[in-house]
Amino acid sequence: MREELVKLSGLRRTFKGTFVRFGLKSGYMNVEKTVLLKDIIEEATGKVVTDHLWFSLGKRLALLNLQEGDVVSFDARVTKYVKGYRGRREDVDKPVMVDYRLSHPTKLVMLKKTVSMPLSVPRLEIMGSNPSVPLSMSSKQANLSQWL
Q1: pLDDT level of residue 120 (50, 70, 90 thresholds)
Q2: Do 76 and 13 contact (CB within 8 A), yes or no?
Q3: CA pair distance 120, 29, nearest whole angstrom
């Protein structure tokens, strides 16, 4: 259980978290896109309230164009919910229990945008026109000195 969230039950506060990845969850009639945030911190106290949480990917979250490592600030209400398996199958071992979550996120703001690097970085040519023929030491030093 998320003990820090229990203390804030029913209250609306400002939090921030780091985006990890997108996911999917199956619903009654469709599959819904989700967002995983880690290291959720209450901004007023600076305390970590939970190590992770999942949000449904709504319009406002989608507009942020999230990438791994982005830090997002948002207001949310702390609510409790029931989790676990409530069906009739006896081979499923997920006990029913009460847990706490952040719901109704509003005022979503990007605090830190991660800059993505290109997958292939161009190689610096310091060997001359024919890479199989090594350059003399003074030529290498001359080519390297322009980058220092």
Answers
A1: low
A2: yes
A3: 41
